[in-house]
Amino acid sequence: MAAFVSVPAGHLRPLRLSTAVSRRPLPGTAAAAPNGASPRAPRRRAAAAGIGMVTTPKPGSPSAAASPAPPSAAASVAAAAAAAVAAMPPTDSSQLYDVVVIGGGPAGLSLSAGLGERGLRTLVLDASLDTPWPNNYGVWLDELEALGLGDCTSAVWPDAVAYVRADGAPSALNRVYVRLDRHALKRRLLARCRASGAVTVVQAAAADVDVSPGTHSVVTYRDVAPATEGGADPDTPPGRPRMVGPVRSARGAVVADATGHALRFVEMEGAPAGGDGPSSLDLRGYQAAYGIEAVVEAHPYAPGQMVLMDYRDDHMQGSAAERTESATVPTFLYAMPTAPTRVFFEETSLIAAPAVPFEDLKRRLYARLAHDGITVTEVLDEEFCLIPMGGPLPVRQQRVVAFGGAAALVHPATGYMVARALELADEAAGHIAGELAAAKAKAAASLPAGGDPDGELEVDADAVASGVWEALWSVGRRKQRDFFNFGGEYLRRLDLPTIRDFFSAFFRLPRQQWAEFLSFRLLRPGERLAFGLGVFFRTTNRVRATITPFGMFHGRGKLLMSLLPLYPVDVPPPVKLPPLPEEGA
Ligand SMILES: Cc1cc2nc3c(=O)[nH]c(=O)nc-3n(C[C@H](O)[C@H](O)[C@H](O)COP(=O)(O)OP(=O)(O)OC[C@H]3O[C@@H](n4cnc5c(N)ncnc54)[C@H](O)[C@@H]3O)c2cc1C
């Protein structure tokens, strides 16, 4: 059987989203703009609608209000936001902030907390500050514990399993999976920002960044009405922030884009400004998933069990067309039971280009649940997830720095990022603080005799940004990403039997090794080589026969360089795994 997938022509139709989602075509679909960005004036980055996800409460469901979260969680996030806003004086356009952070998702708020704790005057603009983050984040408990956030979970599954074997048997992963308590984390990060006494947070949408002044950048923004008032304006499309008041501006020595995957203010290597012409962004794959938070009559999962990936496809054997569809466009189920009658199900395409349409994922999910005898009695929320995977890195010589999805920090082969962003936030804040301190010292030293040492120092804003970019995307991290990118590129071309063979070998690696792949370790080239050989020797000829030519013809120089120890690397602490059952006994 041919192992590489040729995508059926009918599969190329554009994605359609529910009306609550952006009405623009999505990147990764036939009708999308090449890089999802709107035309921009020279030396300016203008905001554009983009991709990400929306959690859409089902009409008529108990949670079909403004937010999918229970009212108490939504209210507590709104209260934390209001407290953080009230803690600092109103913004003043004449003030020069050390850093203006655009976006208050996990990346933006964790970065801002780190900046504030270093005493940097920081302004955070977030369009949805007073509402809970929409995404359901799954992470490994050991990742949170390493960050001192082990208690920041809303569900814990000691028994994570994967169905990736050809015989359909489960593989026990022996690593504890959790659902991040996104409301608690947002409250905690806002509290850290407030406690620092240096972070001003504003519910506002940034529209433009002017990088023409040499010593700072100017962010133009407008305030956003509180979520509770958002639906009142007939001119505002659903799901979009309702802007109020005049256009305002803020000056920052550094501006950090933390607006997620839409690449609103950052430029990527090989992506033409303004989105005209062929773009390196077209090379990205997409993880697409359709999820439901469901009430069920019953489910088959053991207590404490969740399913990380279920690649079985018995539900797709009814016709030749179904069998072909399943074999050529592999998708898996991700299932997180939180009670005997409540489960979050998500049918996921790990990586594909173009993205697998949500309607196909939804159809497959319901077919699977019906086959497994799971009766959904109520859908509380729907999740439409679209994550760009791999593709180019940000240009490192650009004024606007970025963090999180905007900095391409997502794992190119898995789509995970949140634990990594939380881990790197403090380091990134340290780099910004260090580069700014050095630039200020230089500017102070060059003050003319009699110059005001307490006045505004004229730092070289381009040099500061470039130093931050070089540190965030150090050569070691770039090579690591090339390796993960190769993995993502390979996986996206596989048919179902081959992808099962691959993951079957993957989860038979020593647990430390696959865990370090998933958790952004394998920083040393030798570790990556050992990982690759480990999969190669454990897997089937079907995988070997495809990955070898793919490595030679597609991976080539980048893959080779990622495996050669020719550059310095900063190695983070290893992943600290829980004891295996026999070790713990
Ligand atoms: C549906 C979904 C599920 C995911 N699940 C997981 C998971 O389980 N585990 C994992 O590790 N990763 C997951 N990811 C990947 C990644 O971790 C998330 O995308 C994560 O939310 C990215 O964080 P961020 O802070 O960079 O961006 P976002 O979370 O997207 O936050 C961006 C913020 O910027 C604000 N903003 C946007 N534009 C403007 C503007 N112009 N002005 C002001 N504010 C603006 C937004 O309101 C938002 O608050 C998921 C991604 C998606 C889309």
Automatic annotation (TrEMBL):
Pathway: Carotenoid biosynthesis; beta-zeacarotene biosynthesis; Carotenoid biosynthesis; beta-carotene biosynthesis. Residues 27-40 have a biased composition (Low complexity). PANTHER family: OS02G0190600 PROTEIN, PTHR39757. GO terms for biological process: carotenoid biosynthetic process. Its EC number is 5.5.1.19. Residues 21-47 are annotated as: Disordered. Pfam families: Lycopene_cycl. It comes from the Eukaryota. One of its GO terms (molecular function) is intramolecular oxidoreductase activity. Belongs to the lycopene cyclase family. This is lycopene beta-cyclase. Keywords: Carotenoid biosynthesis, Isomerase, NAD.
